[in-house]
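Structural biology now treats backbone shape like a language. To illustrate, our science desk offers a sequence and the tokens encoding its fold:
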Amino acid sequence: MEVDPSAAAEEKPAVRFSINVLELMKEAQMQHGLRQSDYTRYRRYCSARLRRLYKSLKFLHGRGKYTRRNITESTVTDVRYLHIVFYMAERAWSHAMEEKTAGTNAQQRIYMLGRFRKAVKWASLFSQLCSVKGDSRTSLEAEAYASYMKGALFFEQDKNIEVAMINFKNTRAVYEELGKYGSIENQLLCRQRIEEVEPMIDFCSHKLGGSSLQAHELLDTANDLLKAKMEAVLSETRSQQAASMTEFNWLGRRFPITNAKTRVFILKAQQLEKDLNGSATESIAADKKLGIFDKIFSAYHDARSCIRNDLASAGNAENIRDDLNGLDKAVSAVLGLRTIERNQLLVSIAKSKFTKHRDEKNERITKPEELVRLYDLLIQNTMDLTDLVSSGRNKNEEENSFIHEYELKGLAFRAERCFFLAKSYSSAGKRAEAYALFCHARTLTDSALQQLANSPDKALIQDLKSLCDNCRSNSCIEHATGIMEEESVPLKLSKGVSTMSLGDDKTKENKYLLDMLESYESAIGEPNTKGPCRIAQFPPPFQAVPCNPIVLDMAYNAIEFPSLENRMKKEKKGLLSRFWG
């Protein structure tokens, strides 16, 4: 019976290779430099890995003269051929990122884009070969890898942002599907990859005008590929908007802005203020709000430095100097106002921890002394701000109302400070001082409420009313506690006198918990005192230890030992030694 060889070849199933592309890429990147963003080291690793693959496969390119050998579908008889194409793409990508992080001029940018194109070329070939020679998962991962490389190229070219966003979305969709299956490690890798791609999608959407993210959120989520480009785009946008900004408005006064840098810095601070006070401000975490405040302070400080430089170069031009001085005063006042808002945010965070008890995570609670310190800062900030605004000669109505408003806020801050100072004395067991401070805080609160009767600030009035109630309840508690402690003093005194004796008094003041396990006596001390707990004495006291017995050897001197001279070796003497000894 004859067998058709072509039919036998058709019946033999084709070999399908399997590569976990994402795991292979992440393992190579994290172990060889990209954990520290060292793209040069990773590029050198890719080159060394390619040399080893070429040598192991005997897929060399001639001796002496380079002879190019292409990898096609018929060439791929081993999974290592797919590794060669993958590491070629990785080497080109890491070279492009190395040029990008080094800072690019026009010539270097052309070279960087060429490296990205080469990475796209090898990634596309890798996807094509995996679709034929790999299994379905390998083919899908290779397609996602190629889409990411294409998106990175279009992103850097800054021409086809829509195409870049489509490629990034394709990458995200693939890894979202792959992340639903497989091991936990594979799901975590897919989640990390999605988190890397999402900021790029958001930035592309932001540039196309359809993003819901704010500018500071985009900058916070940017990675190495995004940060430099996002900073450039945002600064360019601010420069375009600053061109139409000619004056700064503050409390009914207008100050002209002639310096372009000053406009950019003020505009940056105003945009951050909009992000901070926008409709989505409740969803922003407190840590992020503090970070936005830091950026606002940095922008206003930069604006002030530009104004001071303009003042130094203004010469004797009185009109210009007056405008610059007014602008400097206005920017300083806004900076002081934002400082007060930031400190109020810190107070709200501290108050939320002040009422908490220690939970399973052993979270640190706020002490009343910390709130006293924060209110000291707020009082100083309000005094500085009102002094700055009232320093002008001709004040308008808005400035007067502003000064009056913050004087009342300063009074409210003093009442809050007095309340937490009383809390501090109460925790130390000083009842009389705490009672007096609670009464004084209530007096300050009542005074502030009388002056704020017609104020539109309903939130401040409500806070002061709750503070007044707290002052009244805490003063009553301190009064009652003080009376109870006063009544218990004679009882303690009589008990102490009854235990006195004229003999050797080995009092229990040196007794520790380990010495009185049979009795129910406290070794911790009073709750309001700061004495140490008496658990065990450390270092332990010295104890008498019996010495080793002294043994005197009395028989040694009475022993007569035998003579050993007959066993000793005798020296031989010559003839001359007999005469001269």
